[in-house]
Amino acid sequence: MKKRLCIIGSGVAGLHLAYALKDDFDITIIERQSSDQIKNGRIMSTQVHFGSTRNREKRFNVPKWGEQALIESIHITIGNQKLFVGKLRDPALSVDQRLYYSHSIKDLVGQGVSFRLEKVDKESVEVLIDEFDLVIDCTGKNGPLFPFPIEEDLSPFQTPQRKCIVGYFIGIKENTPLGVSVTVLPELGEMFEIPAITEHGPVTIMFIMAIPNSDLDIFKGIKNAEEFTLKMRSTVQQFFPEIYNRMDGKHFALCDENSFLQTAITPVIRKPYLLVNNKLVVGCGDSVFLNDPITGQGCNLSSYCAEQLYETLTEYKNSKWDAETGECYWNRTKQYVKEVTEWTNAMTKPLPEHVVQLLLQGAQDQVKANEIAEWFANPTKAYNAFFSKTTIH
Ligand SMILES: Cc1cc2nc3c(=O)[nH]c(=O)nc-3n(C[C@H](O)[C@H](O)[C@H](O)COP(=O)(O)OP(=O)(O)OC[C@H]3O[C@@H](n4cnc5c(N)ncnc54)[C@H](O)[C@@H]3O)c2cc1C
């Protein structure tokens, strides 16, 4: 008989795990929202799936999306000075999670994965531990449901380092070549402009990351779509003139009334396993590896860790899953989690001088510009550029 696994939460982590594991194990996903609730609900995030994540999606047979909005490049601006456009080696893609999650749940159910609509709490989780061979906590930033121990050296912050202000808009002429635009305003924060696919067609995501209490932190108290749109328009006009020049005054609007969001995250990294009543419980994705969104790594890291967990469970398929299995999973993920986390945390601080110099070199040299674009697709390169100066020429 196949071992029975329960995945709590159907975000990137839970879905990628379900796709990877479904042929070898009997999978039940437990999710607090139905696929229709997710589809018609509030946006949850922004997202850019870089080449390695998209390759993993192909390996795991995750549903494909139209390629009309492939992200080919990263545009870098500091202040009002556009530095360069770096080309990504492999194109990336951003699909609204409402669409991606709701569609994938239906697809998995069609392939025999069980789905339960339930909000799991700390009491009901005990029953699940008895019922299943393994419970995997993929509850994202709302979690974790278990007290996975905090890794103190990777969790230096007690408060959010940015206010996240996100809207999915129509009425902005896309940048060329199509890409993610990163604008850094020293001492204020950043703007990420991301081309994305939604149920309503292509949109432009405007994602402001404001340093708390700075002059860019000006969306406090804004609750409805109309106020949000007006505020975004005036903020872009004041702080991001190049984007404002591409805005079509008449047609600039949210793509639907639920396509805006304000949130703030206190990053925290946890050891992703523990024993409850002598049984192994693991975490995957934001529930255990929660970083600030500033480097756009959350979905990619969640997917990476899902693959590492899949490989661990497959390797230990015929043995008892215990602390050794959990430690094997942690050993496989630890270094990459550290690299993503330390780079991401560094990006919330003023850029170090040697990194500023690298960015300036990118403005003079297309090869360097392309290397810097790759930081986002391959964060190990960013980590090396930030922390081991010897690797930089
Ligand atoms: C503003 C913002 C911008 C971001 N931008 C990017 C970006 O550009 N690129 C990128 O890669 N990442 C980005 N991220 C991070 C990315 O969204 C997350 O890392 C990713 O979604 C994590 O996936 P996950 O599966 O761990 O969690 P989630 O996607 O949060 O999914 C968790 C699921 O668990 C369910 N759930 C939660 N609690 C329970 C419960 N008790 N019972 C049952 N179900 C439950 C939820 O309903 C949800 O479906 C951003 C995040 C934010 C907030």
From TrEMBL:
Upper lineage: Bacteria, Bacillati, Bacillota, Bacilli, Bacillales
Gene3D superfamilies in the cross-refs: FAD/NAD(P)-binding domain
The organism's place on the tree of life at top rank: Bacteria
Coiled-coil regions listed: none
Boundaries of every Styrene monooxygenase StyA putative substrate binding domain copy: 140-246
Signal peptide: none
InterPro entries recorded: FAD/NAD-bd_sf, StyA_sbd
Protein name per its UniProtKB record: Flavin-dependent dehydrogenase
